[in-house]
């Protein structure tokens, strides 16, 4: 078995479906089926079986999938260490970033870092903070940029703090919100809990939710049309939106804060490319404060 086989087993184990795995790996379904049969023949055991939804793994298949994950990680760590032994900063920097940070801040940051270190390439995964933490814990990424205050045994740096804000087409009084149509959107559990914590501090009744949307950008467009109000982190807002924006406070006058953290393992932070990126991102955030 080679690296392609390890990646095939790993993706198939995640998807449990040959069609999805073929799309992910950009190969044909027949080639995957052929390769799986050859792997079973070479190892002399039954690894897979068909299910109504796709593919299942035998106990031997489960073990092989775990080995595939370990082999991929071991190979990547070996490549990282070899590149780290060179004098110049080079290699692939694997980054996991929360969706909001990835949309509004990360592109400019990666461009600036790339201009300074031309021999560095990027692999970027985006998602909710819980998903990014999972990628970190499984060594899929070197660095995670998260919007939740998770406990972490390695490097943990506070990058920025921002306030949550009420957004609406026209000016609204806080006291009138329970009577106004609220537009919610799917997001990190931590942001949902922060919004809920502020609301419960200010009101006894729940908000009148008129729309439940899948993305914040969709929600913002609805707000721009005067269809209701919402609550959002300041990172996702700008003057160009032409919205009424009111930063939120608890009853005790404390601002409702959302924090952004950079996390990395101690081992990853010793890689030259990771060390330079951490230094770079800290400098950039300080310059923007």
UniProtKB/TrEMBL annotation:
Lineage top rank: taxon: Bacteria
Q: Which organism is it from?
A: Shouchella lehensis
Q: Which family does the similarity line name? A: Belongs to the LysR transcriptional regulatory family.
GO MF term (any one) = DNA-binding transcription factor activity
Against PROSITE patterns, the record matches this protein to:
HTH_LYSR
- Specify one Pfam family: LysR_substrate
Where's the HTH lysR-type domain?
A: 1-58
Does Transcription show up as a keyword for this record?
yes
Q: Which Gene3D superfamilies match?
A: 3.40.190.290, Winged helix-like DNA-binding domain superfamily/Winged helix DNA-binding domain
Keywords for the protein's UniProt record, in alphabetical order:
DNA-binding, Transcription, Transcription regulation
Identify the PANTHER family for this entry. Answer: HTH LYSR-TYPE DOMAIN-CONTAINING PROTEIN, HTH-TYPE TRANSCRIPTIONAL REGULATOR
**Name used for this protein in its record:** LysR family transcriptional regulator
Q: Which InterPro entries match?
A: LysR_HTH_N, LysR_subst-bd, WH-like_DNA-bd_sf, WH_DNA-bd_sf
């Amino acid at each position: 078995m080679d690296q392609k086989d390890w990646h095939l087993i790993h993706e198939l184990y995640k998807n449990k479906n040959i069609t999805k795995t073929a799309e992910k790996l950009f190969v044909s379904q027949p080639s995957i089926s052929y390769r799986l049969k050859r792997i079973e023949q070479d190892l002399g055991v039954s690894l897979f079986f068909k299910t109504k939804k796709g593919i299942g793994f035998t106990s031997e298949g489960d073990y092989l999938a775990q080995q595939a994950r370990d082999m991929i990680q071991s190979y990547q760590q070996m490549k990282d260490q070899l590149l780290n032994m060179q004098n110049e900063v080079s290699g692939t920097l694997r980054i996991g970033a929360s969706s909001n940070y990835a949309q509004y801040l990360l592109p400019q940051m990666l461009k600036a870092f790339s201009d300074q270190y031309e021999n560095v390439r990027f692999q970027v995964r985006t998602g909710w903070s819980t998903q990014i933490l999972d990628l970190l814990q499984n060594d899929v990424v070197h660095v995670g940029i998260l919007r939740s205050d998770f406990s972490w045994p390695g490097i943990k740096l506070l990058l920025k703090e921002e306030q949550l804000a009420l957004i609406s087409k026209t000016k609204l009084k806080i006291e009138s919100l329970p009577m106004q149509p609220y537009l919610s959107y799917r997001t990190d559990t931590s942001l949902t809990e922060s919004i809920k914590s502020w609301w419960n501090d200010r009101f006894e009744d729940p908000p009148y939710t008129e729309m439940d949307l899948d993305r914040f950008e969709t929600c913002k467009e609805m707000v721009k049309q005067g269809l209701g109000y919402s609550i959002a982190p300041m990172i996702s807002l700008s003057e160009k939106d032409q919205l009424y924006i009111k930063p939120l406070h608890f009853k005790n006058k404390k601002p409702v804060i959302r924090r952004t953290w950079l996390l990395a393992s101690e081992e990853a932070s010793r890689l030259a490319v990771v060390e330079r990126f951490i230094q770079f991102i800290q400098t950039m955030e300080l310059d923007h404060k």
